[in-house]
Amino acid sequence: MDMTNYAAVSKDIYEELGLLEQGMRLLLADFESKEVDGQAPYSMRGLMITPSDIERTLEETEHRLEDDALAAFRAYRLQWEAARDAAGDADDSPLARLSRQLGLSVWERRCVLLCLAPELDIRYESWFGYLNDDVTLRAPTAMLALRLLCDSEEERDTARAYLAGSSPLRRFLLKNETVGERSSLKLPLRLDPRVVSFLLHTEALDSRIAAVAVKYDEQQAAPGLLYDERLQVSLQLAVNQERANGGARLPFMQIVGPSGAGKKLHARHVAEASGQPLLVVAMDKLDGEADKRSEQLRHIVREALISGAMLGLTEGILGDTLLESYKGSLDAAIVEYAGASPFPVVIWLARRERRGAQLPLPAEASLLSFTISVPDAEQRLKLWELGSSDWDDPSLYEQLADKYAFTAGQIEGTRRQAALIAALQGRSSADLNDYAAASRSQVQHRLSELAEKRAPSRSWSDLVLPEEPLALLTEACNRYKFNETVLNRWGFGSKLPYGRGLALLFAGPPGTGKTMAAEVVARELGLELYRIDLSRVVSKYIGETEKNLRELFEEAENSGSILFFDEGDSLFGKRTEVKDSNDRYANMEAAFLLQRIESFNGVTILATNLLQNMDEAFLRRMGVIVKFPFPDSTERERLFRSMLPAEAPLDSDLDFPFLASAVDVAGGHIKNIVLAAAYMAAAEQSAIAMRHMIRASRQEFHKMGKIVVKGLFDPYV
User: Fold this and answer.
1) 201 Rama class: left (phi>0) / alpha (psi -120 to 50) / beta
2) Is CATH 1.10.8.60 what the domain over 377-442 is classified as, yes or no?
3) What is the pTM of this model?
4) pLDDT tens column, 496-509
């Protein structure tokens, strides 16, 4: 081989293996030449021991193999390795990359190759059993490695430290073998399975962590879609500055933003710009058992080290309690990674910013936090238009961009889901209703634990109201629809540091349609409606109510849902003079709600029967106040008619004007009357007639405590 032109020849590990084999053949030849009468044949060593064997071991020295042949081999090996090292980074073989990533010494690299040999050729197992003088020990041992791989006395001493200490070889590459009753020199040396698969290119990622980690290689270019270039520059500067300072401090970068905002995308660009892979670990998928989790993290650290990767840790749905319990094992893993990697970088990906004390920060780490926000309407429009089709309505995407404050990931998920919904209904393209239904699958929240979900099945035709309240409801819906236009495109948002959400107050007697109006608004806006269950929110314990309300508003902001506070005066009532501790804490709750309503960017609807009981500060913060009046006879007639489905059998004697005049109740009671009359008719197997309506009206009056005046229902009774 031409040693001066090493970089031009194949650098496969089999080339070095041939060199190793030469040394092993010299050992075998030496063993055979020293067989004498009275001693056990070398083929039987380890199975039988003779007196001559004992005498032989007393005469031998530990360094008996310093003969001319072995000395010549070692000289050739040094020359060969010098030529290989001269190639530098041009040697891109797996073993060369592994050596560079972990900073392996010459001897450690030789040892890795020795341990790899039986993984490449099964005959080495027989050789090792023979050379170890023990047919049951068919793996390289510490003694064999010292005899075959060392070039001097000094190197033997150093090599023993590599095998016994905290070297990269022992910590990350070799399996943990128990010595048992054997001498430490008889300790078998075996590579961890992932090291073998890395050197042989049989795995792209350790299969033991495939369920919790994903690796992005530097050759896999990260998509350039919608990432903040200024943020990207800041991230890269943080990495470069630490490396320019000699890497004394670990760059620990926290990237915060909603799901799908591009946190992972930014991390990939940082790794790509640095020429490193990125290993992203889903911490919420780690094993809950401490020992198994620590084992997973050891595999993860090894993977990051042997591939030279930056380490990305994403919280997912990991809660505060689990994060606290995981912190000890995460601390140990990051310290190990930072201490062994030549270019360590940790990127923490989370939905909300964490304090330094909550994070697994080594003492030498420098914490930098970056926030990614939801893209504005113009950016969202570009994202929607990227996937548009020829038959799509261009105005549809502008509506979607304005309506849904979604991240890039959520937009793509909504598009796929809407297309599926349309296809299941036999349509070639999705409409606004399909996108509204699909949007609900793109948010993860816990509102159902604190509130009751209401399906918005009512439409404008079901709502019987005078012209003024209807106009106010329409105006309220338009405020939400054109929020982006007014606040961002027209610049009004710069004048409003807070109060950018839509707060509605519905006031009126019971049964006048406040809940129905909330459902109509939710359907018109294409948003989910959650009615607040006060029994799950209000607590007798100090501070617990505020905590529940804070979580309620945070989940609503994340999901884009409407919060509907029925009987709102119980929470938003007037603050009173402080006479005792109960008054003080009640006022604190009201003050917290006041601040949260104002800072909430979504839609809130408050309903109350008694407007005069509401705190004036809340009234001032309501964007629209809709008063629901008691229906007059004309509206009651419309209510009676609208409550009866087209499929219901009706008797010809139904007199709706008479019913509207005689039954002076609100819409909620009319609904009860119509439903009760329908059940009466069904029991008689007849059409719904006036006699059923009057009987049902009498029952409803009795429930309400109203006196039925004699002759009220004449001439029908």
Assistant:
1) left
2) yes
3) 0.67
4) 766 678 889 898 88
